[in-house]
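In this section we turn from sequence analysis to structure. A common task in structural bioinformatics is to predict how a protein folds when a small molecule is present, because the ligand can shape the pocket around it. The inputs are simple: the amino acid sequence and a SMILES string for the ligand, here zinc ion. Study the lines below before reading on.
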Amino acid sequence: MTGRFLALVLALLLAPPASAETRPPNELGRVMILEYHRIDYPEERWTRTPENFRRDLETLWAGGYRLVALNDLLDGRIALEAGRTPVVLTFDDSSPGQFRYLEVDGRLEIDPKCAVGILEAFSREHPDFGRAATFFVLPGAARPNRLFDQPEHEGRKLRFLAGRGYEIGNHTLWHANLGKYEEATVREQISLAQQWIQRHLPRYPIRTLALPHGVYPREVSWALQGTAKGVTYRHDALLMVAGGAAPSPFSRAFDPTRLPRIQATERELQSWLAHFERRPEERFLSDGDPTVITIPRAGRRDLRTALPGDLRVIER
Ligand SMILES: [Zn+2]
């Protein structure tokens, strides 16, 4: 009797809470790639305040979203607990509020109000949220957008980011509108940006390019790979500036040369969160096993033909 009672109590205690976990996994669901610009005051079209950015992280965490690195998404390497949804953070234009050092008592500290400071603190308080973001930097832009605007610390910042599992992406040398230039200039803008980044991080693999203004060069291939000024670049994905939630990396609709993003304004973010509340069947929900892709019944026709890695597909 006592044993059965104990077993019942244990079962109740160990049961997962009734939330997203109770929905069946769907790894063909869509994924939000959020796009931030300035983290600063006041809140406006291209600026999120530090407090609002922190609130975004809280909202995402409470809603069952977990951080996944962009490169892991591209590789289909999504190692989340069952019932969780990946979300990718991206930051464009390397403005100072994204990453700032302060000198405190002769020591350098990351400003707790810059994006990196907020992310670091949030991940410390919520280790299950993960720690990932991609920074699409401008190494040759005018101030204040040149590599976060502290020239004396720019190498330290890039090394910190790479060493902590954040990613650095190409956003061209100085935010060139790639639709306006001939091939040679397009390639130079990309290869020189890479060269400047790799000056601080030798051989660092830059796998992604965010198109300034979302504008493609006349030939997409110019942005994907090539050599200019003695520098060879090769990108696995090109990111746009809009377009909504991205298809699952396992979906036939996933096109890494046209990755859509969601601008992380209050309105856009709320509207996409509400969208997935209304239509939870559209949302990527992990099965908890990174070696298995769990898809809806009869979902095979929506699968990509060439799946990344050595992944097994299960219909639920
Ligand atoms: Zn930009």
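The two ends are 37 Å apart (CA to CA). As an exercise, try to locate the residues that line the zinc ion site and compare them with your own expectations.
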